[in-house]
Amino acid sequence: xxxxxxxxxIHAARDLRIENRETPAPGPGEVxxxxxxxxxxxxxxxxxxxxxxxxxxxxxxxxLGHEISGTVGALGxxxxxxxxxxxxxxxxxxxxxxxxxxxRGLQNHxxxxxxxxxxxxxxxxxxxxxxxxxxxxxxxVPADGLTAGQAAMAEPLAVCLHALRQAGDMVGKxxxxxxxxPIGCLAILAARxxxxxxxxxxxxxxxxxxxARTCGADQALNTGSDPDALKPFEADKGQVDLHLxxxxxxxxxxxxxxxxxxxxxxVQLGLGGDMTVPMQAMTAKxxxxxxxxRFHPEFATAVGMMQRGLIKIDPxxxxxxxxxxxxxxxxxxxxxxxxxxxxxAF
Length: 346
Fold this sequence. Notes:
six-stranded parallel sheet; 2 domains; seven-stranded mixed sheet
């Protein structure tokens, strides 16, 4: 008999409900996770505030959530890598491992990807904000020594580690990070760990810029109150080696191009829809633009780095709400003047 469990379900913009969903017993190679913590991501907020983003729109009710951790409640047949009551971080990345991209080691581009809480395909891929979740054992990374809240940060940290892989060598480089939400601040932490020489952060919120300083930014500039804050970095064709663009805003990308030195690199993380790029300046300065989309092997690396104390994410977790207060949690998470990472406790 399938057990009922409360889940956080989005029906339309601003229509978020707590509903019971069925959870079957785990099959071979699967485990049942008793959910501990779920972090609210920017994509979750897009679904909550706007019913989607860009061409991706809700066409049916969908359970939200993909930044999660919990304890193993039951083991399916053949699972020997995990044990009961063990805390695990659960990767939302579920590639098929058999398409042309998976076979090339590009699982983040899997043709048959089933990523928790995504309205990209239809029927939608239901998310993980469920009190009890059946998942593949291979998606679970033991998180011994971490809190459930820390373990749930593995997913956004993995996004940033993948972006740093796209960026290449960072030792001694001057790095510009535009957009200091959770991804931007995690990118600062990761860039500092990777040996960045100087890190400049920009945002429109003094609150998030304060956290960026805590995370290791050498300069944190409010380009809303001071639109010319980056002007000094434009001197002599540019002072910046690498631009990690985390806002998805065209104006931030253009500002970065102006600051990049010849031969510099942009890594675009922020997803804000299509935007115009300053192609002439990029061509003249021989700038490389690289995209960065999701992650796969970096997830386990993120857990390991937190376990060893190499990256400390605690300053980013600013609020925690009970799952039954999900609407209040999403409202808080939408306010960048007061919140960084808001998590749900299940």
